[in-house]
Amino acid sequence: MMRALWTSASGMLTQQFNMDVLSNNLANVNTSGFKKSRAEFQDLLYEHLRRAGTIDSMGQQLPLGVEVGHGAKVSATQKIFTQGDVTNTGNPLDVMVQGHGFFQIVMPDGTMQYTRDGSFKSDGSGRLVTTDGHPVEPAITIPPEATGVVIRSNGQVEITLPLGQPNQTVGQLMLTRFPNPAGLESVGENMFAATDASGNMSEGVPGQEGFGTVAQGFLEASNVKVVEEMVNLIVTQRAYEVNTKAIQASDEMLSQANNLRK
Length: 262
Hints:
Radius of gyration: 27 Å
Helix content: 10-25%
Largest sheet: 3 strands, antiparallel
Number of domains: 2
Strand order of the largest sheet: 8-7-11
Oligomer: single chain
Mean pLDDT: 92
Order of helices and strands: HEEEEEEEEEEEEEEEEEEEEH
Shape: elongated
Number of strands: 20
Number of helices: 2
């Protein structure tokens, strides 16, 4: 059986996977805090029919070898953590991270997850929570008598009170960082989970020690660029078509060999 059939089939599989990744990027173009992914590929094992540097029958060293590859495979999908565009919402509980850092969220099982999506809400008890009701860590509670909420660029949360009373501080938003954010695991709901590859989490006040600042009334949009993804889709489609052409050519060559007559 011709190697080209299996080699081209591996190319089709990698391009299909690439299409899946690009489709997910485009599906989340309007998802707040979403970070696009990029598929990365590697070539497969090579069959060496003759290695470079081999000594021939005349005692001469051959400068080139004879080798043939066996296709491609997916090696990784990398999250690209570039800053997304700014969306002005005017909602006082919407908070955007400008620069490095993630908000820390407490899950129902007590574990921590991390997000760039700052579209927070106030639940029935006044706690600052995500859209799915998971509370922010450190916990922040807005009392019912508050007439407004002010979130400073350093994450300090204040409330305004009636009758001209001075603002009262009710909490502090903190940010977290990782040595290798690309090593975080995407778990859905705009959340990431720490892994051994992401490194140890460090926590800090916004605007200090390399952490980004926060902006009230804004959200970070997805960093997906539609035009760029559409171009990548076209390139992927053409690469897939080229691999199908190679399979067709291999099949025709085998057909001709099968139809040989003496």
